Amino acid sequence: MNFEQKASMLFSDLNVPEVFITEHLGAANGEYVKIYLYCLFLCKYNSEISPLDLSKKLSIPLSTVEQGLKYWEKNNVIMKRQKTYILSDLKQQEVDKIYKPKMTTSLEDAMANTAKNVARTQAVSAINAMFFQGVMSPTWYTDIDMLFSKYKFDEDVVIALFQYCFDRQALHRNYLFAVADGWHKSNITNMNELDEYYANFENLMNIKKTVSKKLGLSRKLSQYEEAYVDKWVMDFNYPLNVIEIALKKTTSKTNPSFDYIDKIISDWHERKLSTEEEITTFMKEQKQKQKDFKQQTISSIPSIQKFHNTNDSTQVNDFSQFYMN
Fold first, then answer.
1. Does residue 214 share a domain with residue 311?
2. CA–CA gap between residue 234 and residue 200 (Å, rounded)
3. Which domain holds residue 36?
4. Which is nearest to 313 in space by CA: 322, 303, 323?
5. Is the separation of the CB atoms in 35 and 69 below 8 Å?
6. Does 105 reside within a domain?
7. Are the C-beta atoms of 191 and 157 separated by less than 8 Å?
8. Which one of 3, 157, 203, 246 is at 20 to 30 Å from 135 when CA atoms are compared?
9. Is residue 4 one of the residues assigned to a domain?
10. 109 falls in which pLDDT band (50, 70, 90)?
């Protein structure tokens, strides 16, 4: 390693860009932050150090040092040029993000957008005060503008989005836009649609908990099991009382799988049965048909053969067994 001291370290300060604190500190691993700060320190003195020596200096595993350097590369905080690492100018990056060439616009367009711009300005100010203590990073202004332009969210929905992420201690860009994508796919643009989405989501969560409880599962449903319930509720529009009919009818089957239950509920959907009454009536009819078929089969077998083949003659498939119970 080569060190070149340009000033007394005793009286020297290290300048950390505030953009690093507002944009990267919250999302980064603590050890990755240590790596960045030490690299910033080394850059000040034009020093050289190997990843192994950096690992020893910071008491961090070499693998973590390598992962940390890759993390900062991925986030454009550090650039690698062959064997040299260059710390990016974070301030310039922010300027490049928020700078937009001034475009000419008509007086009519400007007047038409005045009310909208006032409302959006108020929403941005509210977000700045509520979640950033009045020191929101300039990058967030660009991101908020994208929420309006790309997703067509109303001002109240944008504020609700920040509140949602803040409540989950995940107020960083990747998570916020992941949630925004989800809301956009659910056709949410205003608070009425968001309230309806929340109500449907809460109902879906309660149904999943009930299904798990009714099946005697001492755990949460797996991702694949939840997909079945999503299908029954969101695609088929079946309420809990209909799903419970299928759950009750599996009590005679040892360890019924979700695939088995799904076949039953999908059968109802294909038959366009939508209510509890329709399904109950259909099941009674199926049960009676199975009994009639069984009696007809038994009566047609000679008495001696009937004695030996009773078990064979009463075998039925899964659906038949389901409706016989």
1. yes
2. 9
3. 9-93
4. 303
5. yes
6. no
7. yes
8. 157
9. no
10. low
**Both 151 and 239 in a single domain?**
no
* Residue 240, CA distances (Å) to 40, 237, 263 in order: 58, 10, 17
Is 19 a residue whose pLDDT tops 90?
Answer: no
Average pLDDT, the chain: 81
In a domain, 2, yes or no: no
Shared domain check, 70 and 20: yes
Supply 324's token pair: 């016989």
SS3 assignment, position 94? helix
Helix axes 114-132, 155-167, angle to 10 degrees: 10
Copy the structure tokens of residue 86.
């260059």
Nearest to 38 by CA among 11, 10, 70, 60: 60
- How many structural domains is the chain composed of? 3
Phi-psi region of 84 (alpha: psi -120 to 50; beta: other; left: phi over 0): beta
- Banded model confidence at residue 5, pLDDT cuts 50, 70, 90: very low
Domain assignment present for residue 1? The answer is: no
Taken as a whole, the chain contains a residue count of 325
End-of-domain residue from the set 93, 121, 140:
93
Q: What is the C-alpha separation between 188 and 157, in angstroms, rounded?
A: 9
